[in-house]
Design brief:
The chain is an all-alpha fold. It is built from four helices and no strands. The longest helix has about 40 residues. It starts with a helix and ends in a 5-residue tail after the last helix.
């Protein structure tokens, strides 16, 4: 007979897999949709490969990205897809904290909290790029 803990572990693993799966799929959909909109609006422009410009200044923060998405800016929608892709494993680490707490595995709870803290610290101090 299977214990209830077995089903809890299996359900948690399934939910973690779904977090990764749906995060990557939604990111891909965003990037493809943004790429299509970008090409429809700016596909005829000749690219300048002499200078690398990078992302627009307003697209380097979440508020600027969301503003651009509301205006159906292709660049902003692509950036949203990239942000979703970055947020996917962070969400998984956050969910892992609760999953390990349910299993009463406090060593892994503390390790997950440490990993999440390092990620948040590096993002807030602009060490991530």
């Amino acid at each position: 007979m299977l214990s209830k803990q077995y089903w809890l572990d299996k359900d948690i693993q399934k939910m973690m897999g779904n977090i990764l799966r749906y995060g990557v799929m939604s990111s891909a959909i965003c990037v493809v949709a943004g790429g299509i909109i970008f090409l429809m609006n700016q596909g005829q422009q000749i690219p300048e490969y002499h200078h690398f410009l990078g992302a627009k200044t307003q697209l380097r923060g979440l508020s600027g990205i969301l503003t651009g998405v509301r205006h159906l800016d292709g660049d902003a929608i692509i950036q949203l897809g990239v942000a979703l892709l970055i947020a996917t494993p962070i969400t998984r680490v956050f969910f892992s904290i609760f999953a390990f707490a349910l299993e009463k595995d406090f060593l892994y709870v503390s390790i997950s909290i440490l990993v999440l803290s390092i990620i948040i610290f590096s993002m807030l101090n602009k060490m991530a790029g």
